[in-house]
Design goal:
Blueprint lengths: L22 H7 L4 H10 L3 H14 L4 H13 L3 H14 L4 H13 L3 H14 L4 H6 L4 H4 L2 H11 L1
Helix pairs in contact: 2-3, 3-4, 4-5, 5-6, 6-7, 7-10
């Protein structure tokens, strides 16, 4: 699933931003206008209420990676990075191929200062998705980790 199409007015480049649900899922969930309500709350920057709505969406169908991803974004925006990482992990379980999920999971581990999990996931991403290696190591999002000897070792191992 491509995460590059963020919601209107959210984010500059779209990577790792809240995303739209596929049309079939939108149609099945929108009977109560939950998705539309969520999108309005995100556009208004009301992350707390948006997280509450996402929880209702997840309760209706817990097997949609987009819902877990967007829940993680809400939690990150609220500064609840450990919980966000858990939501992104669930999204990753449902869709292991998605770079937006990988990026946000790394970001949540970083912001939660869980550098061991961050480094373990960097290693996993590099081994499993070699096409993402340059993106991971060229990112300027994680300056504190870049100074760690274990990160330097991973960089040498995967990026040369």
């Amino acid at each position: 699933m491509n995460r590059s199409s963020g919601l209107a007015g959210v984010g500059e480049n779209g990577v790792g931003q809240p995303t739209r649900w596929p049309l079939d899922i939108r149609n099945s969930l929108s009977a109560m206008n939950l998705i539309e309500t969520y999108e309005q709350l995100v556009d208004a920057g009301d992350w707390s209420k948006a997280a509450e709505v996402i929880q209702q969406i997840i309760a209706k169908n817990p097997n949609i990676d987009t819902s877990w991803f967007n829940y993680g974004v809400c939690l990150d925006e609220l500064g609840r990075h450990v919980e966000a990482a858990n939501a992104f992990l669930r999204a990753h379980e449902l869709n292991i191929q998605d770079y937006g999920i990988h990026f946000r999971l790394l970001r949540s581990f970083y912001l939660a200062e869980d550098y061991d999990q961050f480094l373990a996931f960097v290693d996993y991403v590099c081994l499993t998705f070699p096409e993402e290696i340059a993106t991971v190591f060229e990112s300027t999002e994680f300056p504190l980790v870049a100074e760690l000897p274990a990160y330097t070792e991973l960089r040498g191992k995967h990026y040369g």
